[in-house]
C-alpha cells in the first residue's frame, strides 16, 4: 500500500476512535472529545491542502489528496449533524443553531463531499472555502 494512503487510513482510524467516544453515557456530546476531534481533522486537512499545492489540479495525485480531504470533511460534518440530532432530541436546537448556524448548510456540504465523485475542474475542492 502506498505511504500516503496508509497514513490516511491510520489517521482516519484515530479519528474514528475519537468519534466513538463523542457521545457520553448520558447521551450528550463530550465537548472535550469534540474539540480534539475537530482539531485533529482541521490539522490533517490543513496538511493535506498544503501537500496538494505540489500537484497540478486534475492530476491523479491531486485527486487522491482531494479525496482524502473529502473524507476528513465528511467526518467533521457527521459530528455536526450527530450533534444536531442530539440537540433536537434534548430540546436544545436553539443552542445548536447558535453554535453552528443553519443545518441546511451542513446537509448541502455533506452531499457535495459525499456524492461528487466526478472529478473535473469545477468539482474539485478548490471551489470550496473554509468558514
Jot down its keywords.
single chain; 131 residues; mainly alpha; 70% helix; globular; disordered C terminus
What share of the residues lie within helices?
over 70%
Indicate the mean pLDDT.
Answer: 82
What would you report as the Rg, rounded to the nearest angstrom? 16 Å
Class from helix and strand fractions? mainly alpha
DSSP strand content: under 5%
Distance between the termini: 34 Å
Oligomer: single chain
Instruction: Note the overall shape.
Output: globular
Give start-end ranges of low-pLDDT stretches.
Answer: 119-131
Q: Could you spell the SSE succession in H and E letters?
A: HHHHH
Give a short account of the largest sheet. Answer: none
- Counted by DSSP, the helix tally is 5
**Number of β-strand runs:** 0
Short description, anyone?
70% of the residues lie in helices and 0% in strands. The protein is mostly helical and 131 residues long.
